[in-house]
Write a structure and sequence with these properties.
With 335 residues, the protein is α+β, with helices and mostly antiparallel strands. It has 2 domains: 117 residues, 3-Layer(aba) Sandwich (NADH Oxidase), CATH 3.40.109; 184 residues, NADH Oxidase, CATH 3.40.109. It is built from 13 helices and 10 strands. The strands form 3 sheets. The chain has a 4-stranded antiparallel β-sheet with strand order 1-2-4-3. Strands 5-8-10-9 form a 4-stranded antiparallel β-sheet. A two-stranded parallel ribbon has the order 6-7. The longest helix is centred in the first third of the chain and has 20 residues. It is globular and about 65 Å long. The protein starts with 5 loop residues before the first helix and ends in a 19-residue tail after the last strand.
Length: 335
């Protein structure tokens, strides 16, 4: 088997980076070591210190990119052995980076059927179109048969989750430091230097320029606190109307104590899996991140014993397909 060179790694990295990441921060970086193995590391400059204090979401994001790399290699007929390096918390390899995984070529592989859906997967933050009964039945059957997905469907379940999500979102948005960090990753004008590359831009947020300017002005200033004191905070963050258009919500959970890199790999497969049925997804991460919200949610939708909630996706058909905004390959590879 021929060694992977720098040009090939850049192409593979671009394919791997189609994976989802928290706030579209795209923290995974790729390098070759002296033995021709692929190293995946987290760029710590992209860590969300306020929203992700433990680094779990960064680990999940790197895990998703790792799964993308495994699929990209398999498409070239290359099988790899994966060493999960996240728990070792190695930061001495290179300043500003934390090693996440090492991939060692180990024979031949067949392409993954999920790889066909990487370009079709995207986050939809608008109102969903109506799902056909057949597509919804296929989705529910798939979810019920999986051991890490809990299906929540029907108007009552959606209303319960929608209200819980809005309440949890308001609680975190009341923290000025969280809002400041979020705004740093929002690209509210096409003139922003990173508009087409990372973060959350107007297209991804389904906002017009005027709406984006107003949102940025409110979130990045004390105006939010003033509006909240006047009772308008809930209105500013409310998503319930859009959530109620979803076909269902899917609770994604994994074994307690599992490395976030492993969970991130499974999360990417999960999202690609639902994409096969014609569904887009929109995460409600606060339902997993806010303890009170998570506890309330799991009282109604219990998980298998020994599992922890990773994320909740509201899913449904999207009326259009959105482009992905990703960093160029040259920014993903470390020399």
């Amino acid at each position: 088997m021929s060694r992977i060179d720098a040009a090939t790694l850049a192409d593979l990295a671009a394919q791997a980076n189609r994976a989802p990441s928290v706030h579209n921060t795209q923290p995974a970086r790729f390098a070759l070591d002296e033995e021709g193995r692929i190293l995946i590391a987290a760029d710590l400059s992209r860590h969300l210190a306020v929203g992700d204090p433990t680094g779990r979401d960064m680990g999940l994001s790197c895990g998703a990119a790792l799964e993308g790399m495994v699929m990209a290699l398999a498409a070239r007929g290359i099988r790899v052995l994966v060493d999960d390096l996240w728990e070792a918390d190695t930061r001495s390899w290179r300043p500003g980076y934390r090693l996440a995984a090492r991939l060692t070529p180990a024979g031949e592989a067949s392409p993954s059927s999920l790889a066909d859906w990487t370009e079709k997967r995207f986050t939809w933050r608008g109102r969903f179109s109506a799902a056909t009964p057949e597509a919804l039945a296929d989705l529910e059957r798939w979810a019920v048969e999986a051991d890490d997905i809990t299906f929540a469907g029907g108007p009552d379940a959606l209303a319960f989750i929608a209200a819980l999500n809005d309440g949890a979102s308001l609680s975190v948005m009341r923290e000025r430091a969280f809002r400041d960090e979020l705004v740093a990753w929002i690209r509210l004008t096409p003139a922003h230097a990173a508009y087409a590359f990372d973060g959350l831009n107007l297209d991804a947020l389904r906002m017009g320029r005027l709406e984006g300017a107003v949102a940025g002005g409110v979130l990045a200033s004390p105006l939010f606190d003033l509006a909240d004191r006047l009772g308008l905070g809930k209105t500013l963050v409310a998503e319930a109307g859009k959530t109620m258009t979803a076909a269902a919500c899917l609770l994604f959970h994994r074994p307690e104590g599992e490395s976030p890199v492993v969970s991130g790999r499974a999360f990417y497969r999960f999202w690609l899996g639902l994409t096969r049925f014609g569904f887009a997804g929109w995460p409600m991460a606060v339902l997993a991140d806010v303890p009170s919200a998570s506890e309330t949610l799991l009282q109604r939708f219990p998980l298998p014993q020994g599992h922890r909630l990773i994320n909740v996706l509201r899913v449904g058909p999207a009326p259009i397909t959105l482009a992905k905004y990703r960093l160029p390959a040259r920014d993903l590879v470390l020399g």
